[in-house]
Design a protein that fits this description.
Layout lengths: L1 E5 L4 H12 L3 E6 L18 E5 L5 H8 L4 E4 L6 H6 L1 H22 L2 E5 L27 H23 L3 E6 L2 E2 L10 H11 L3 E4 L5 E3 L1 E2 H13 L7 E4 L4 E3 H12 L5 E4 L1 H4 L15 H7 L7 H25 L8 H7 L5
Parallel strand pairs: 1-2, 1-4, 2-3, 4-5, 5-6, 6-11, 7-10, 8-13
Antiparallel strand pairs: 9-12
The chain binds uridine-5'-diphosphate (UDP).
């Protein structure tokens, strides 16, 4: 199999790269390194079956060149993280809508199968006890960036579905729910790396709002094999699948759990949404997946517990922090840039 992964230097993408290389695929990564990072691929760089292309999905010719000859494409490149979306609404819309259209066209031209990685954000504010794939989407104002982001991912899905029904493109859609694990950065707002990182550094844990909003966190190690199985299931074509965690937990309880798992004595501080994001920011009070469709199709079960997940995240953050400290001690700061970036850059083709 020749697999292309857009966004392959990102959090989920880099885990998928490792999984597919281990399965024997030739893998091409297309990533613009905006939110992805070369260091995410350090473990995979030595594999001759991996080729890296630094470029944007907005660049049509790069997308065409990268996908030419591919058997399948995993499309993960997208604007990611609530903070980024709120601060950069226009580039988020462009990346999601125009970038995805480029990927769809290139897949069609090359007869490549496509797995479109969407998001549980498409359900918006629907607080149903278990969102199934055909649940209603409840979005707020069309002028609010969080909801326009959700709308743009919904457009991606609609685009993909229309390419399937009108042109026969072989495409399946997945909607991950709060996937977390090693290499996820808290820079764009994601709560688990934020809280665990704060706990490890002895800083106050920032719980936004009243902390009673709930989520179901899924572990990247459970999600990635399911992505591949769904991509390979003929019956998945033309359909969408939720991939979420098993345990519903409030963010306040999550903070307490992060303290327990890390053994930290940090305090918890409650930050109003308008301070954390901006005036008028709206959050989901609750988001709970129904994983039945993915279970029926490929036997998806989110097996890793939240405590195990938090322990993995804590270990990864502690290791990265240690490596960064050692590196900063040996890299001349006047030259800028850490050695890891130079090493990784050497492997990039333009
Ligand atoms: N959140 C928080 N503290 C943080 C970051 C996020 O309390 O430092 C909250 C956020 O407001 C939301 C939940 O945690 O209610 C999950 O946030 P995330 O951005 O990880 O995912 P999403 O909102 O997309 O589910």
């Amino acid at each position: 199999m020749r697999s292309v992964i857009t966004g392959g230097a990102g959090f989920i993408g880099s885990h998928l790269v490792e999984y597919l290389l281990a399965a024997g695929d030739d893998v091409v990564v297309l990533d613009d390194m905006s939110t992805g990072a070369p260091r995410n691929l350090l473990g995979a760089l030595a594999d001759p079956k991996l080729r890296l292309v630094q470029g944007s999905i907005l660049d049509r010719s790069v997308v065409e060149d990268t996908i030419r000859g591919a058997d399948r494409v995993f499309h993960l490149a997208a604007a990611v993280g609530v903070r980024l979306i709120v601060e950069h609404p226009l580039s988020s819309l462009r990346t999601n809508i125009h970038g995805t259209e480029n990927v769809l066209d290139a897949c069609l031209a090359n007869n490549a199968k496509l797995l479109l990685v969407s998001t549980s954000e498409v359900y918006g504010k629907n607080t149903a006890d278990k969102l199934s794939e055909d649940s209603d989407r409840v979005l707020g104002s069309a002028l609010t960036s969080r909801w326009t982001y959700a709308a743009s991912k919904g457009i991606d899905e609609a685009f993909a579905h229309a390419y399937h029904t009108q042109y026969g493109l072989q495409v399946a859609i997945v909607r991950p729910f709060n996937t977390v694990g090693p290499r996820q950065t808290g820079r764009y707002g994601m709560v688990v790396p934020n809280l665990v990182g704060q706990a490890l550094r002895g800083e106050p844990l920032t719980v936004f709002g009243d902390g009673q909003q709930t989520r179901c966190f899924s572990y990247v190690g459970d999600v990635v094999p399911a992505l591949v199985r769904i991509a390979e299931a003929p019956a998945a074509v033309g359909r969408a699948f939720n991939l979420g965690g098993a345990e519903e937990i409030s963010i306040e309880q999550l903070a307490l759990r992060a303290l327990r798992v890390t053994g930290s004595s940090s305090s918890i501080t409650y930050v109003p949404y308008e301070e954390a994001y901006s005036e008028g920011f709206e959050d989901m009070r609750r988001r709970v997946p129904d994983n039945a469709a993915a279970f029926d199709l490929v036997g998806f079960v989110p097996r890793t517990t939240l405590d195990e997940t938090l322990a993995h995240v804590a270990a990864a953050i502690a290791e990265t922090t240690k490596a960064d400290r050692q590196r900063s001690a040996i890299v001349d700061p006047t030259k800028g840039g850490a050695r890891v970036a130079e090493v990784a850059q050497a492997g990039w083709a333009r």
